[in-house]
Protein 1
Amino acid sequence: MSIKRVLLVGGTHGNELMGVYLIKKFERCPELVHRSSFETLTVVGNPRAVEECVRYIDQDLNRSFDLERWQPEGSNNSYENQRAREIRAKFGQDGQLPIDLIIDLHSTTSNVGLMLILDNIDTFTLRLAAHLTSRHPTLRVYSSAGSNRNSDSLRSIAKYKIAIEIGSIAHGTINSKLFQENEAIVQTILDYLEGYNSNAVELEESSLTVYQYVGVIDYPKDDKGEIQAMIHPQLQFEDYKLLNPGKPIFLTFEGEAIAYSGTLAVNPVFIGEAAYMEKGIAMVLTEEKKLRLSPD
Amino acid sequence: MSIKRVLLVGGTHGNELMGVYLIKKFERCPELVHRSSFETLTVVGNPRAVEECVRYIDQDLNRSFDLERWQPEGSNNSYENQRAREIRAKFGQDGQLPIDLIIDLHSTTSNVGLMLILDNIDTFTLRLAAHLTSRHPTLRVYSSAGSNRNSDSLRSIAKYKIAIEIGSIAHGTINSKLFQENEAIVQTILDYLEGYNSNAVELEESSLTVYQYVGVIDYPKDDKGEIQAMIHPQLQFEDYKLLNPGKPIFLTFEGEAIAYSGTLAVNPVFIGEAAYMEKGIAMVLTEEKKLRLSPD
């Protein structure tokens, strides 16, 4: 197996500007992402949302690729459904330019630092992730398996798929230090793929720490659906850290702490992410796991 | 002179949720802002924008109160113009409930910490500011005089007016620690006014440090109006700190530093604020000044 075509995506969410400006840079200077053994393409996922600097126009583009709920043309003509059809027709496995690997660039208001999102735990993806963490030691790996990302996200149309998630960054802003780190990770991926295609990569690590999705915690709400509490100061910006049962996770507007009522210690991520408030999600829970990497 | 009516405003910008949730709290528990010598009213400035969690629907409400450009009813029926007319008819000096002091609650993605914005440098306002900084030592005072805030902002309709600006906070999020500090400042203001009305306040400070507006710096742009650079890492989140001529302020996407070309040392604030990107503004420049407070 070799990688023949890679798609770099920014602006799947229109107000996540880091990815948008990185894609614009690569489109100005395509030699930066050119490699000899595969083709690198770029696309801005949701250009109208980028123009208006909002997450989406009618519905979340990154929840619009579900084949099972796939609407026949005309039945749901939201902007994002149309855009999803265009993107699938161009880059899907039955499209004009089927993609082997999508790298989708995101940012978040939560304090996840440099995060790699894996939707599939296959050997190719795990080895790529292990290589990246060896080159970028602050990079953490989150596995979304079980959270539906594999069936409705933009990147789900590719054979292999990863997202790079960077935070904390306010939506609608760019952070120059994180922009450069984001770009460096993309370069490391492209270099790895070049080596992979010529069988020149070696397994440098025997295991990989992965934060595995296990569920979400919603904000407490009143009868009218109004949220009643904020993220507790002790939890704010503490993404990945171990949260034990009984520890405070929310603070009501009246100043009362609400404890984590689960029975398992977990590692929350995406704590207080702005875009999840409309869904009522306060944080995503993960379990820290060590995965063995299979030798050649 | 006594203060008879105070208006607390949140959600003048719909995605600045701290103020919105503080106003909601005060509307649930009006006894928190009740004082014996004056009436305290509350209002959500831009409820439709709050509902959609965006800064505004058609135009910035906080730039819609300009009397000189005031449009006769019907000539500009943007949502915010209608809303500005409603608010003025209710709370303006010729309205049903003319307001002596507006306290407008804002938040920003820039790292201004706890900031008090003064549009007027009159004795009443300066003494209030000095009292607040004595009680909240991390509070900094910004004077917007000369920046048009006094003629087109929502708070411009009141006799006296201040804004509380808190950051860094991503739009669409709440920070519980800053929420509590925000509330504490509002309480200190209301207590001060109660004392003021009974002549029980004394001048505790003889001078006040003020960051005085002197201008703005725009992002560098190309021929098509696209921004070409980000805030330099050395300047990011360094609001208020002295910026000397020749120091880097921008980093192009290609990695080149751009220096501050002014001739005066300045103290930038609102560095990289998300909402200013659409106007092309990268930061607001101020000069740090010590103002003498006049004795009784």
Protein 2
Amino acid sequence: MKLNPYYETLPENYLFAEIRRRVDAFRAAAPDKKIISLGIGDVTLPLAPAAVEAMTVAVAEMGNAATFRGYGPEDGYAFLREAVVRGEYLPYTDKISPDEIFISDGSKCDVGNFQELFSDDCKIAICDPVYPVYLDSNLMAGRGKNITLLKCREENNFMPELPEGKVDVIYLCSPNNPTGTAMDFETLAKFIDYARKNEAVILFDGAYSAYIRHPERTMHTIYQLPGADEVAVEFKSFSKTAGFTGVRCAFTTVPKKLSKLHRYWTRRPCTKFNGVSYIVQRGAEAIYTTEGSAQVKKSVDYYMDNANFIRRELAGHGFTVFGGEDAPYVWLKLPDGLSSWEFFDTLLNKCAVVGTPGVGFGQMGEGFFRLTGFGEKAATCEAV
Amino acid sequence: MKLNPYYETLPENYLFAEIRRRVDAFRAAAPDKKIISLGIGDVTLPLAPAAVEAMTVAVAEMGNAATFRGYGPEDGYAFLREAVVRGEYLPYTDKISPDEIFISDGSKCDVGNFQELFSDDCKIAICDPVYPVYLDSNLMAGRGKNITLLKCREENNFMPELPEGKVDVIYLCSPNNPTGTAMDFETLAKFIDYARKNEAVILFDGAYSAYIRHPERTMHTIYQLPGADEVAVEFKSFSKTAGFTGVRCAFTTVPKKLSKLHRYWTRRPCTKFNGVSYIVQRGAEAIYTTEGSAQVKKSVDYYMDNANFIRRELAGHGFTVFGGEDAPYVWLKLPDGLSSWEFFDTLLNKCAVVGTPGVGFGQMGEGFFRLTGFGEKAATCEAV
């Protein structure tokens, strides 16, 4: 059978599957222990009432002949694309219009699929440490030899280094998963400048922008920076903003100035996608209403309180910590040269607390550990 | 910019986008004319009450802290995978188990994405005429030179010919879109035999199996045939069965006997997908309840009555027609050597009726025209 040979170049276990395996083994051995997870970045609060209400109405519409809807536009209903521009862009920039917004069922899908638009031999720059999807989706496509890692170091607050030499595509994520740090305007401006000079494209993952608390030092959207709309594609999600991890909705912004990419990303869903559930799109639209946005803000504040608490308490006990100020993630430096999987196992077996080993995000993550603010408040305090 | 060069090998306009363009132009020129569409294969009846009820409950669960769900399993909740096996497979075969079912947001996505699991140089066989996604997704992947077309001819009731020589992957669709014809057991057995002898994989699209009325001559699932579970992957959808075109749910069955494909298709969603909306999965589960399946059957019967009517009336007026017996599509042979786009334009401009030109499905579709039974009954009668 002539299979894709590059699937065999992937790490054997997807990071979170491996964590699940170890937690399951612990649970089997100690079924009475209560496990607290500060591991996978999954939300825990219920959906905003505005989204629940809107989806309840939409479900009823689908059961009524007069209001039933079949196939929707592959790239999303105009009502949601317009709401996104009003809610996500107009407060920061007037550069983005609704026909540059593509609604999808998740940023993981979009980030994973976007690489298809580039040639097999293009050169890719990816930060280290980083969310594994950028790397894995390019490995699957056979670009293992074309990947440059941009090292992110503690001494530089985990800001990525510029690529040495010419690359074609650069993945950036800010506020960052896993380090919880946010790019400052100056660093990002350097990348935009690099991209313009090198005809490179920046794929900017902004899934955590709702967690920004210091807008004076970091950007809600990359399009706040001059020239970004000529070189950057932006990925955003309702998962962490509105608790949609189990509901599934996101969007990707491809400016028309990136003309071929805009045309190709318009074409791809025509062939390989059939749009997001109408019900879900109505739920997403509702978070941009006055009530919806207030409700969503409350949940984000709750998670940020957790992240701040983790950061403050660990720092107060002498640990070195990063993140947790503009992101729901705290990046803990491990003491005593412990490896991150050793620490994972110790923390699980001694304290029944789950986190994410830094090395799971790349070699530069070794010696670090990711904790999330997405847990329930009392459990988070107990774990800390 | 180093872009995927194969996007430029795609036909300029996706078939249904081109149809929409011409219909929009007609509407602009004659805004008062009522247009009847027997064109795109989209359902028109509202969702089954059982699905509406289940999704209403699921939406409420998501708004409640005690029942809220975040990320689900990438390949679907066990409750739906088990319901699928009970509802779709056990009545016909005991060969398929829940861990061979992968829940997705649409067959178009699955059919479009599955080719990624094969090598770039594998040889692909695709029927002509055919649903455009099989061809276009392989063109995008750069396999334009590796494609063999399996001609489907009128004199053979549009059954595909076996490939000459060795191919690695064969796409089949039965009941067929666009011809509306269904494969008989003997023809399909020959393909399974070919696949076993040539180490080929059959990608079997069974999106329309709910429309089968002659189970004695055609299969509900390919796994009714001996040996199919060693060579075949099956795609099925809730779109046409339960009217989920705007709700989005489908599944792909990859038997464990196809061990590497099973492993790769397990791995792909871990990297590039995050599961189907919980709300939608509850809706899909509900169509397998006693009430749900009766309600869904009623809608399918309604569409089949339309298809039968189209077939019967056109045949009665001396036209040569295919399909419409085990599928919602009727495949009309055009008289007088008319091209299928000429007929499209004539039908639109003279009668304000929309269908789909056969040539849009491949060169062998020239001289034919697809009509669907998915319309409203009175409008369908008027159009005929």
